[in-house]
């Protein structure tokens, strides 16, 4: 006879085993990490049987710079190859926090125009999720704690505008930003409770920022607010400097992170955004990381 604890443990293990094929269906790649030509990128995705793509740069430019007719052309390429868009990547709020002056308010007006254009492009591509950021500071600076209240207010306003058009903003933690770690992301999510705002959790960005992203940073997050996840790997090189590397060649525990996300009931998409640079080119770098990541998914 099994005890209740043993039965529950067995059920959890069974669910994790069944999750691997589902995880593969929820995995995509940032297209320009394969090639700036989207046709080349979708053929790569088809080769691996993947049907999701995160769109950032296409044909050498940020998607928010491309005219709408080019975005419609992109949608046609995706449809032809049975690829759908998981998230539209934008540079919204990936700028220094503008001062609260007429000039600074003009900068913010331009940012909100960018967001409006991003929503047009997201609608064409069939996604309701738009990746944004939480402002940046210079490498030789430290984040000014007094700025967080204003940042939270601006992110709340952005979420309000997105909600009016039935979009969700998935804010990414990234190095050099006021939200670079799990701890900083957790504080923002507690301050901005708008249902149209969630997190693109990038544990490797958090790790590169000096946090023990998993389990420490992740433990501080509300899993229900994680709407998208980026995956890759990093390590400390011989000179003691942090660098991106192929998945499996670094120090990040992708397996542990994936298992924790599945255990929490995470239902969103995953994007491989390798950042690793191979002398053989971007496609080779992504192929190397993707092959290793698929083996990790088999163990989840």
Structure description:
This protein has 300 residues and is α/β, with parallel strands linked by helices. The chain has a single domain (25-232, 265-286), classed as TIM Barrel, CATH 3.20.20.150. It is built from 10 helices and 12 strands. The strands form 3 sheets. It has an 8-stranded parallel beta barrel, surrounded by 6 helices. The protein has a two-stranded antiparallel sheet with strand order 3-4. A two-stranded antiparallel ribbon has the order 10-11. Strand 5, helix 4 (102-125) and strand 6 form a beta-alpha-beta unit. The longest helix has 24 residues, at 102-125. The radius of gyration is 19 Å and the shape is globular.
Average of the residue pLDDT scores: 93
Helix content: 40-55%
Q: What name does the CATH topology carry?
A: TIM Barrel
Structural class: alpha/beta
What's the total number of strands? 12
Q: Which architecture would the CATH scheme give at its second level?
A: Alpha-Beta Barrel
Sheet with the most strands? Answer: 8 strands, parallel, barrel
What percentage of amino acids are in beta strands?
Answer: 15-25%
* Tally of separate helices: 10
Q: Termini separation (Å)?
A: 27 Å
Low-confidence stretches: 6-18
Topology:
Elements lengths: L3 H22 L1 E4 L7 H10 L4 E4 L1 E2 L2 E2 L5 H13 L3 E6 L12 H24 L3 E4 L15 H17 L3 E5 L9 H10 L5 E5 L1 H6 L4 H7 L6 E6 L1 E4 L5 E4 L8 H11 L4 E4 L9 H18 L1
Parallel strand pairs: 1-2, 1-12, 2-5, 5-6, 6-7, 7-8, 8-9, 9-12
Antiparallel strand pairs: 3-4, 10-11
